């Protein structure tokens, strides 16, 4: 069952697509990285939809969704996603899957609505101390390119505010967590790659039941480079609920 929807929420209309059937299992909710939208999941969507129902969507101002006048920070995006789920009558529990910046959103969602979440998969997600600890290890060219990329949804300040929100809301979650870390990042020195994997490992501290998987042959988009790693992580959580 594929169902495309345009859902009216308070400030805009969001595009969402529900794929597969949940067969008594939790619905998988997927949130893409910064500037990305639902098509970012094309490489894994079919296989995941055989496990349970899956919701992919475009955040406001991206893909087929209308812009929103709300600030483009994680807390606002989480509120909009919550509203979308309510309006679309997609009931919890949810398994949340977030790639990159989408991982920031999904961590905040799990903190805000802990009773609605039964699993979390973070795919090369942005750590809250990325700017302070990681960015300084990279070349000036990389840092400049990084700072200039914030033109698709939130600006640089809003992105940094989202990381601050993540830091401020950080708490122990009582849900199974699988952290997927890209082991072959583009333009990373050995030292930077090692630090990246270490910072991904530290994310496990937010859960009493966490597991780190390093996708050895993947750059940032693990779902494209090693889709089976992403499918396997989600499958593990679906089957254990």
List the defining traits of the structure above.
single chain; 241 residues; alpha/beta; eight-stranded mixed sheet; 8 strands; 38% helix
Protein model, in words:
- The structure is a single chain.
- The model has no long low-confidence stretch (mean pLDDT 97).
- Helix content is 38%, strand content 23%.
- Strands 1-2-4-3-5-6-7-8 form an eight-stranded mixed β-sheet, with helices on both faces.
- α1 (42-49) runs parallel beside α9, α2 crosses α3 (101-112) and α3 runs parallel beside α6 (156-169).
- β1 (2-8) and β2 (13-19) form a beta hairpin.
- It has 241 residues and is α/β, with parallel strands linked by helices.
- The chain contains nine helices and eight strands.
